[in-house]
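Hey team,

Sharing the Cytochrome P450 run so nobody has to redo it. Sequence (510 residues) first:
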Amino acid sequence: MSSTSTTLTAATVGKAALATLVGLAAYYNDRAIFDENRKGIPYQPGLPIVGNLPLLIEHKDQIHDMFLEAYHRYNVLTLTFSVLGVPRQILTLDPQNVEYVLKNNFESYIKGPAFHGAMNDLFGDGIFNANGDEWKYQRKTASHIFNVKNFRNQFTDVFVEEIHYMMDNIWDKAVETQTPVDFHEIMFKFTLDSFILLGFGVHLNALGTKGVVPFAEAFDSAQRTTFQRFITPVWGVTEFVAQLFQPWKTSMNSHLRVVDDFARNVTEQRREQLKNGEVHKDLLSRFMEASNAQGEPLSNDELRDIVLNFVIAGRDTTAQALSWTFYMLMSHPRVEAKLLDEINANITEESLADSAKLYEAIKDMKYAHAVFYEVLRHYPSVPLNQKYALQDDVLPDGTPVRKGDHILWCPYAQGRVEAIWGPDAKQFKPERWINEKGELKRESQGKWPAFHGGPRTCLGQHLATLEALVGIIFLVRKYKFSLVPGQDITYQVSLTLPMKNGMKVMVEKR
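Structure output:
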């Protein structure tokens, strides 16, 4: 074939490809290629062929606010968007839809294959990532352990022990030296020590360690990478490329090795201790007495998944809830003063020294509960979640769902929507949680899914609330915190809602 013919052929192919691309761009002019135009659902238009992919990339560090902005732009509680390489996403902030997916039609919506794939390396087959019979069995076993009264007292004893260490070695010293302290970092170390002790029966002593704790650093990095997998469909490629061009950065596999080695070493050591007749009451030891769905003793891998899921659930969310609570208290002195009055009226030195009495006193502190609930309305521990539709369906608001669709809901955005919470939705107002009779109000799980909802409602909901309030009471009663000026207090996009830049505070005694 002559060079002229080759040139003509190449030109023809090029023109055909360009014509095909132009045709596809004209047909898929506002959505990702091969995505159908879904009638009956309001949608956010995107760019030809790639859909909303550029928008997602642009706002990946403020994704929760992006969803809130979409509500304000289109004035709808449910809409769909199309992203190249991502299965169909339907975002809903409508409480009736959220409750329907979580509770009323629970069996039709599961953690889908994309969710499981992204979460598997860190979460394994633990309760967060499990579905069906495996999830039901773990849930049943865990519920027995969490409902034991002495486990509640053990929780409180551990928290109080760690709080006293934190006050003596960090806050009292900060008062003396008048040096700023990163409150968020301290809360993470405090809850890491508490939950590793509760979960594995090991004193990690993160609070007594200056700088980073290797396990904590690996654990946190693995979680951040897991969330990026959650929103990046081609994460296998992006992680490979990142490692290729940035080989000095620690890989996900390296972080997982640190986490796995810690869990495995503790588990094997505990097996030997129990074999030698030692008695341990931590979560690991309690689960060692249980069996799996096949009636067999739990393997080291199964124990690793179960206990790490517990640590993730309790440690991160409690640290973040405490951090956001004190941020809001420092920003709202009226609320702080009212909370301090209730603490002084209900908490004595005697009750602080007795876990059972402290628990009884906290139960009756309505305003403290209201403050905590209002913080979780603004800063929910799990700010974004999703389920996978197993079959065609119609949501309560009339939105058609097809098998394989992903339903997203964003509690962070929900808590700021006037159509859900009224014209004062963006205000921090704990009083909204107390009715005319002075009793705590209960909101539906669809409106306030801070602890998830339906059959998968957080098993540790009451323990988490109790322990957060224990921390709040001890610290508010003894110290006055103030924000160091000039900080950017915002969230880090992750599975949960940590503070991106920490939160430096000054502290003085009351």
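The mean pLDDT is 88.

Ping me if you want the raw files.
A.
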